[in-house]
Amino acid sequence: MGLLHRIARARLASQVIRRLRRAGVADARYQSAAFTVRFTRPGADEVTVLPLEPLLKSQSDRRVQAVPRTGSRRARWAETPPGSRRARWAQAVPRPRGRRARRARVDAFVAGFLSEPSLPREWSEVCPMLRPLLRPAHLRGGVPASGPDAPLRRSRLPFLSEFVVVDQPETMTYVGADQLAGWGVTADEVFRAARGNLSGAVLHGVTDEPVIVQFAGDDNAYWTSHLLLDGWLAKLSGQVGGEPVAFAPDHATLIVAADGSAHLPELFARAEVMYLASPRAITPMAYVSDGDGRTVPYRAAPGHPLHDCVRRAETIQRVQEYARQAETLPGAASLTLVDGLRTRTVAAVGALLPSADELDWDGTTRPWSDAVDDLDPVPDLDPPRWTRPS
Description:
Layout: H1 3-22, E1 29-31, E2 36-40, E3 47-51, H2 53-57, E4 78-79, H3 99-114, H4 123-126, E5 130-136, E6 153-157, E7 160-167, E8 172-174, H5 179-183, H6 187-197, E9 213-216, H7 237-240, E10 244-250, E11 253-258, H8 264-277, E12 286-289, E13 295-297, H9 307-326, E14 336-338, E15 342-346, E16 353-354, E17 358-361, E18 364-367, H10 368-371, E19 376-377, E20 385-387
């Protein structure tokens, strides 16, 4: 990160802290590594973690992307989807022009963190509000991937996890593991209830040739979360004209086409562009149903017409998600894209190494399969990393 970029981030943090102090917050602290501000609301005893990345993004985008809110005694995390019914205070506004407009944007952003959300305390009340979410394993915005403040999650697909949120009119708040004891339920019950509350979208009609169906728009429909419902994707075969292949490049877009369609190479390219451009990206990969109805990555063996498309999508996702993780992981080694289809990392002693196709080992290129036995896995990291012993 360059000096000017660090200065811009620190300047934005100072503006947020000044706004919090005007509201009576005395303990606001900037954490540069996570790019967050931690503070305690007046009259509260829990810490709120305010991620600054969405506010920084909004300087070049017309929408505020993600908003954390507090829940019980620990920090809670919530998203405010742009364009949805719950994004009342985060509606599209003109790009700031001048100091007054920038100050107004900061004030509006911070205001969402100063109000106390009302979360149900009884399981019977909260259960109907639960919904599943398919998201990158390492959430953006300084949301911790592990620890007491981390959202409840389960690894579901490579680089993707299943989360659970409480869906309310104004917020959708991530469920934390510490809330389960208060509700008197297990994690299994929470995930099962969330999936049960998502009524799968139904497509009517049948086609006798491959077609493309795009579910897009309001996040309230949880389109991408449909991939978490066993059997749902396979049921669309009659509507898309063949075995369904799904793409979920960002939070509000789900594209389904038929395997064998001449449009699949184009859809891989479109998904990559959307994935790389969106601040709310999910995955550039394609997915199908296995024999049990579970969603799994699309595979194409060498020689298959889509082999290079699939491999590039896997590689782009790997590079991006490891970079996302490295934003808040000191000592994380970077992953480099080589020839558009391969990845490489430098196996420096002590660095946290990502999974790669090959390693630069003291100036010599070694395939990952030959070098992995000489590396030590690092516990409790997703995506996983390794270290090279000294």
